[in-house]
Write a structure and sequence with these properties.
3-stranded antiparallel β-sheet, elongated
């Protein structure tokens, strides 16, 4: 059975676990009941009990509640598997989100927390209900990730603020475990009450289920406590803050929590950004995400200007690490040092698929919409909730365009809009808008129909003043001298001098110009 087929997880999965357990029972404990063997298998995976039992069964609960059924009649069964993987955690997370389930009763939860003040079940329930942690996050949480000074849980993918009450509670739990074990080397936040060792995810689900049943919350699951935390946060904070502290993608928030969002949407539509980008904040995001698909996309977009479409279609035969180039259909793009390091690292883990960008779970190519979602989530986690991948590309394009224009003027002198249109294939309107933006930012100065660098010409608003100052100092000047002094073209100088003579401010004698007062 192929891995990822969701049929007992294929070779190396639950079917093999069940086979090993049955062999061990035959060799060492032939009298062990099948039910006991199934319970052992449940600690490894929800579908192992079925694999231990075999035959035809109805599976309920998480797959551990089995009812024997009559064998299937002789028949043909067609199984269809798509050409992409379906990672179990992601699959069930989406199913959980499709139906948020019941919200826990607050009074019942308070009773539960009061009666389980310091045991493992109390810790697990608090972390899910009061901090929004997933089961695997609860399992793997360590004391190094609990920042008592700032009242935060610092997970690999996000930082979660916690209340002073929860911080004080966790501090008391830490002291208790240290006292019971006699040392502080046990770094797991949640440990078995009996063995003082890290608990497995299935065991955490069982103890949470047990204590929830005690207070009448029989239909509430551990994930429902996290959903309730998300809803409470949405009632108090904006969507971007909630997405950042919960690690949820924007699409998931919109799909599953629309009724708690303003207008049912998580965030505004794309709009032109007028403020400067916080490059230090972006750099921190790039560092945090450098080993993820989102990090690769952000690096290639921000530092090299690749579009999402370029990136999802990029293959390894387009990447030349020796020459530091990426070969795109529209031309070659130089590799930055940071992008080269990331690509070289990914090349070492290359699969048979030729695509550079593969999903972290299924190792399959990603589409543009998926790329947009994962980068949006990464930006939100880093505190840049108002920015999108498109915004970063737009900023790169603007910066790159400005650099091209500046270099062209330095190389060949002042430039006209018509030359811009011809050199870079721009329409009249596009060229005007880009040049207008550079004028507004003070990157260019327009004199007549030509564009100059600010330090290479006297701007029109200062030309009259500069002309008068020059003539006062020199006494008189020819047109050539004034052209050089003002750093403008001959035609523009002629127009300026004619206007000043016609206005009566200058007197022309032969080829020389004088101030009237002189």
């Amino acid at each position: 059975m192929p891995s990822g087929s969701r049929l007992m997880r294929g070779l190396g999965g639950s079917a093999d676990v069940a086979a090993v357990l049955r062999c061990l029972r035959t060799l060492y404990a032939p009298d062990l009941p099948r039910q006991a063997l199934e319970e052992i298998g449940l600690a490894v995976g929800s579908d192992v009990p079925f694999c231990v039992r075999g035959g035809t069964c109805l599976a309920e609960g998480r797959g551990e509640i089995l009812t024997d059924l009559p064998p299937l009649p002789d028949c043909a069964i067609v199984l269809c598997k798509p050409d992409f993987g379906l990672p179990t955690p992601e699959l069930f997370a989406r199913l959980d989100g499709a139906d948020l389930g019941p919200r826990p009763d607050t009074a019942a939860m308070e009773r539960l927390l009061g009666s389980h003040a310091s045991d493992a079940a109390g810790v697990a329930v608090r972390l899910a209900w009061q901090a929004g942690l997933l089961r695997d996050e609860i399992t793997n949480l360590t004391w190094d990730q609990v920042d008592f000074e700032r009242n935060q849980l610092q997970l690999p993918a996000r930082t979660i603020p916690i209340t002073q009450m929860l911080a004080d509670y966790l501090r008391s739990v830490y002291r208790k475990w240290t006292f019971l074990t006699g040392n502080s080397t046990n770094n797991c936040v949640i440990c078995s009450d009996r063995y003082h060792k890290q608990m497995q995810p299935q065991a955490i689900s069982r103890i949470a289920r047990r204590v929830l049943d005690e207070v009448g919350q029989t239909n509430v699951r551990l994930v429902d406590l996290r959903h309730d935390y998300i809803i409470r946060q949405l009632e108090q904070h904006d969507w971007s803050y909630v997405a950042r502290i919960t690690g949820m993608e924007i699409r998931s928030l919109q799909l599953h929590f629309a009724q708690y969002l303003p207008n049912g949407r998580a965030g505004p539509k794309h709009s032109e950004k007028s403020g400067d980008i916080d490059e230090f904040k972006l750099w921190k995001i790039l560092q945090a995400e450098k080993d993820t698909p989102a990090g690769l996309v952000l690096w290639l977009t921000w530092s090299m200007g690749l579009t999402a479409k370029n990136i999802v279609s990029l293959t390894w035969d387009q990447v030349d690490l020796e020459k530091n180039l990426i070969h795109l259909p529209e031309g070659e793009v130089p590799l930055t040092a940071a992008a080269k390091r990331i690509l070289a690292k990914r090349l070492q883990k290359r699969t048979e698929d030729l695509h550079v960008l593969l999903s972290a779970e299924s190792k399959k190519p990603m589409d543009v919409s998926r790329v947009s979602r994962i980068t949006r989530t990464a930006l939100i986690r880093g505190g840049m909730e108002n920015w999108t991948l498109r915004d970063l590309w737009t900023r790169y394009e603007k910066s790159n365009w400005e650099q091209k224009i500046t270099e062209a003027i330095r190389r060949s002198g002042p430039i006209t809009r018509s030359q811009i249109m011809e050199l870079y294939g721009q329409t009249k309107s596009a060229a005007y808008q880009r040049l207008r933006a550079m004028l507004d930012k003070g990157l260019l100065v327009r004199v007549g129909y030509k564009y100059y660098l600010p330090d290479s010409v006297v701007p029109p608003e200062r030309q009259q003043e500069a002309l008068y100052e020059y003539l006062k100092k020199e006494g008189f000047a020819c047109r050539k001298d004034i052209t050089t002094a003002l750093q403008i073209e001959t035609e523009q100088c002629s127009a300026l001098l004619k206007h000043e003579v016609d206005s009566g401010n200058l007197i022309k004698v032969g080829q020389k110009y004088y101030l009237k007062e002189s």
